[in-house]
TrEMBL record:
Pathway recorded for this protein: Cofactor biosynthesis; molybdopterin biosynthesis
Protein known as: Molybdopterin molybdenumtransferase
Catalytic activity: adenylyl-molybdopterin + molybdate = Mo-molybdopterin + AMP + H(+)
Keyword Transferase: yes
CDD domains found in the cross-reference section: MoeA
GO molecular function: metal ion binding; molybdopterin molybdotransferase activity
Record family assignment: Belongs to the MoeA family.
GO cellular component: cytosol
Its EC number(s): 2.10.1.1
Listed GO biological process terms: Mo-molybdopterin cofactor biosynthetic process
PROSITE patterns from the UniProt entry: MOCF_BIOSYNTHESIS_2 (PS01079)
């Protein structure tokens, strides 16, 4: 049911009632019918508001009118909260839960205490934060820096509606957390009082006379005109706009699926928002009993166990560069759309044999974008320019340079094949053909192709977000003074820039000392912000190797001892469901391991499939003896057709990374490479750098 008679919009408030004069942060409501609004109504506290709403519902029911009642606070919490608190995903069970516990009287209520009580159930650092009271509340952090949220920060709709506040923040400018807590019990009571007459959108079918919907006026409305109270003005605007909306448009806005978190009316639900399945806890488990895992085994393992973790949504083509296609792209139109001329010249029907030909010129000409009217008579030629659609009676074109032009005729020599110098409709791509495959990373050339093929919207994956953090007591921020025994953090700037070049979204999570609690907190924050986490340092099995220790503690960690040089053990694991690549601290090993192991894995996680860097064989300009049993990567560059290796293989020599333009890959077996022997060189460009 979507044809409502009455629209009443309410701007709620979570604060306490303190005075009698209309204040901007109390409750405002406005009623509209048949496109016209009544004057906004000031409701000084929630008790007054509840009574006013009850009277309105009763009056509308008595008059046999259908009522849409909107409130400007979330009807649900982010995924998982309802179940954690009530044992059920049903948001209406959460409404009951709050109603049973919230005490609300004008002048005082227990919302901060209840938030503290809820937080204590989850470890006492979240999900709620901020406290407007002078007294401290156990378990309720005052500031976000002291805060840890076991649930998602935002609902799906809030991730789409930029600029929204989260329902976890209870105080401070713009916070909505208190409104939700103080609003849901009132809605709950109304539902009970008018049992069977009220349906809550989008949790229930709207087949009752009253519909409760969630609105968010600030999302679409600008600033209120000078001198007007914003909330009063906003409820009036929204009530009027909804009552003027045609029922079909309103029905489309109401047709959303959000059974747990709820939705904001008017926010367009993405046509496809698909969350990929979570990774399995054992995704990094290597076969037992192998001392040193060969590189290819390790790679094959990553390739088998990992899959896309990024969400999919439909977006305009303009933002597609560098993004991963989530579905095959089908040409909406042919390129070229019509048969046309490939050159400037003269068009006619049919080929011509060897010898001299003279053809009279037809009147007019055909140019690109300017169709020729009418047919060209048989035996005549028409002036035609590059890109012009072939007019009726033309299937062959002679190049103007091959023609002698008379006053009203042309002469040229054959032979000329039928169809010469023309392009067939759809000879590039025909409408309906698959032009690009799912998993492709969109290139500048693809942007041209997509435009030519009339594609306006694409199913794209979100960019992969990759968090980077460095560990080590010895590290200082680059550019800051370093004391004795300290070194600047070199890995983090390197890894962040590499990720940027790979086309991912790097998230800088800073440096962490060799301290388990700090690292744990930082990993939590990284898991909240990113899809994948890269750490460097502390990945071995020593006393100060806290990355591996923590991942081990989390129960989802594997030490990968890979037969590769440079490289020490890699620590791979899941932290709060997010894959962690624990890279060696050594900058050379960190970079090589990122290129060889992390990059193809990240590409898979991003939905772009496994990548194999393209290398080529080229004569060596160096000599090297190599032991069997491990693969080696040398910092290398090509000069004068031969590949040079860096002067030293020392794995702390960052200048060698900088000197190099790629890597030489030496196979797992023993070898003695002499100058002139072919070796495999992989330019950094092939790794996407
Ligand atoms: P770790 O893997 O933590 O034992 O570190 C191995 C070596 O790499 C040590 O010499 C560290 O000082 C060095 N190292 C670790 N992290 C970094 C970093 N972010 N930048 C530069 N060097 C580092
Ligand atoms: Mg260290």
């Amino acid at each position: 049911m979507t044809a409502f008679d009455t629209f009443a919009m309410v701007d709620w408030s979570g604060g306490n009632d303190t005075g009698k004069r209309p204040r901007k942060d109390a409750i405002w409501a406005c009623v509209a019918r048949a496109g016209e609004t009544e004057a906004p109504i000031y409701l000084r506290n929630r008790v007054v508001a509840r009574d006013w709403i009850s009277d309105l519902i009763a009056a509308e029911l008595a008059a046999g009118r259908l009522l849409m009642l909107g409130f400007d606070f979330p009807f649900g919490y982010p995924r998982g909260f309802a179940r954690a608190l009530t044992g059920s995903d049903d948001p209406l069970a959460l409404w009951d839960w709050f109603e049973a516990r919230i005490e609300d009287a004008p002048g005082a209520n227990n919302r901060f205490d209840l938030a503290g009580e809820i937080n204590r159930r989850f470890g006492g650092e979240g999900p709620f934060w901020a406290n407007a009271l002078a007294r401290d509340i156990d378990g309720l952090p005052r500031r976000k820096t002291q805060y840890r949220n076991p649930f998602p920060d935002r609902r799906a709709v809030e991730r789409l509606a930029k600029g929204s506040f989260t329902c976890w923040q209870l105080a401070g400018a713009g916070a909505v957390g208190s409104q939700v807590m103080m609003g849901l019990p009132v809605l709950c009571e109304l539902r009970r009082r008018f049992a069977g007459q009220v349906a809550v959108w989008p949790f229930e079918t709207l087949d009752r006379p009253v519909a409760l919907v969630e609105i968010w006026p600030s999302l679409t409305l600008g600033a209120a005109p000078a001198g007007q109270i914003r909330d009063a003005w906003q409820v009036e605007q929204v009530a009027r706009a909804l009552s003027r909306l045609d029922p079909g448009a309103l029905a489309r806005q109401l047709a959303v699926e959000a059974p747990e978190e709820g939705w904001i009316l008017g926010v367009e639900q993405m046509k496809t928002e698909i969350e990929p399945p979570p990774l399995r806890n054992d995704c990094f488990a290597l076969p037992a009993g192998v001392e040193w895992t060969p590189v290819d085994t390790a790679l094959a393992h990553l390739r088998d166990r990992l899959g896309p973790v990024t969400s999919i949504r439909t977006e305009p083509v303009a933002g597609a560069l560098g993004r991963v296609l989530a579905a095959d792209v089908v040409a909406q139109r042919s390129n070229p759309p019509l048969a046309n001329s490939a050159v400037d010249g003269y068009g006619f029907a049919g080929g011509r044999p060897e010898g001299k030909h003279v053809l009279p010129l037809a009147v007019g000409r055909a140019a690109a974008g300017l169709a020729h009217d009418g047919a060209v008579p048989a035996g005549q030629a028409l002036r035609i320019l590059t890109g012009a659609a072939l007019p009726e009676g033309v299937d062959t074109v002679i190049l103007e340079e091959d023609v002698t032009l008379g006053e009203d005729r042309i002469a040229f020599r054959g032979p000329l094949k039928q169809g010469a110098n023309t392009r067939m409709a759809g000879e590039d791509v025909a409408a309906g053909q698959v032009a690009l495959r799912a998993g492709r990373v969109v290139t500048p050339a693809d942007m041209a192709l997509l435009s030519a093929l009339g594609v306006s919207e694409l199913s794209l994956r979100d960019r992969l977000r990759v968090a980077v953090l460095s560990t080590g007591d010895e590290l200082v921020e680059p550019g800051e003074p370093a004391g004795p025994g300290q070194i600047p953090d070199a890995n983090r700037p390197m890894l962040l820039s590499m990720l940027h070049r790979f086309g991912f979204v790097p998230e800088d999570m800073g440096r962490v000392p060799d301290d388990r609690d700090s690292l744990r907190a930082r990993l939590d924050a990284a898991a909240e912000r990113a899809d994948v986490i890269l750490t460097s340092g502390g990945a071995s099995a020593g006393d100060e190797d806290h990355v591996s220790a923590l991942l081990q503690e989390a129960g989802a960690m594997q030490q990968w001892r890979i037969a590769v040089k440079p490289g020490r053990p890699l620590a791979l694991g899941l932290w709060r469901g997010k894959p962690v690549f624990g890279l060696p601290g050594n900058p050379v090993a960190a970079m090589v391991c990122t290129l060889i192991f992390a990059r193809p894995a990240l590409s898979l996680l991003a939905g772009a499939g496994w990548t194999v860097p393209q290398g080529f064989e080229i004569p060596a300009a160096f000599e090297k003896r190599k032991k069997a049993g491990r693969r080696e990567y040398l910092r290398a560059r090509v000069r004068d057709g031969r590949v040079e290796a860096f002067r030293s293989e020392g794995s702390g020599l960052i200048s060698g990374l900088s000197w190099a333009e790629g890597l030489v890959e030496l196979g797992d077996g023993a070898g003695h490479i002499r100058p002139g022997d072919p070796v495999r060189f992989i330019p950094f460009g092939s790794f996407g750098l």
